[in-house]
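Worked example

This section walks through a single chain of length 257. The input is the sequence exactly as stored; nothing has been trimmed or padded.
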Amino acid sequence: MKTKWKKWTADYGLFFLAVICLISIWEWIVLAGAVPAFILPSPTAIWGSLVENRELLFGEHLPATLLEVLIGFGFSLAGGLLFGIGMHFSRSLEKILYPFLVISQTVPLIAISPIFILWFGYTIWSKVAVTFLIAFFPIVVSTYDGLKAGGNEYRELLRTMGANRWMIFKKIQVPMALPSILSGLKMAVVYSVTGATIGEWLGASEGLGYFSRRMSGNLQADSVFAAIFLLSLMGICLFLVISFIEKRLLKNVMRGR
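Given that input, the structure is written out below as tokens.
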């Protein structure tokens, strides 16, 4: 236990010390009147807004945003893996899809989000569509690049032993591509929070993005920062979940070898 605590403090101690210092300076600057509270509220005011609006934030808006993120990320994961593997096996499919994937990322989300609202209305699916669009790309690219890179010597060795393409894919390419795929998942799950928030900003009746937009219109900066804090915390937690899965999965793969 002591060893784990020492390792944890060695890895993250300086970070948390820096956070405490920044929050203390931030609080002092606002209380000293250097920055108006309606522009930059103090950390204690943000915390007070979290406590005051806890039933609304945790009971209605946080679950709504989390649901949009999880559904959008789930579709991105399934579609990204499917398209990445498909492009790996088919050169023709790669030539057709890859340009479309790049083009999809050149269109600003702010510009295309109203189209999703036009198609899906103010339902959850307009936010899921935005989330899917922003999270899909890193999963496809990381899957395709991970499967394509490395392992040439192992592939040639298995071919000389009579292995077919499926066996090479299963035994060599997938294990070697896992670090790249999981890195793409970590980026995508954070992008999913951004996508859901953008969708809520442009049209929603619930969610943390909707709440922050409404509070911004009322000049309640502390409530806006409270929603931003929860969005950031959600992204961090989801990132840590994928990181935990990554460590366990890679450890099992190494043991299997």
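What to look for: Residues 46 and 198 are 22 Å apart (CA to CA).
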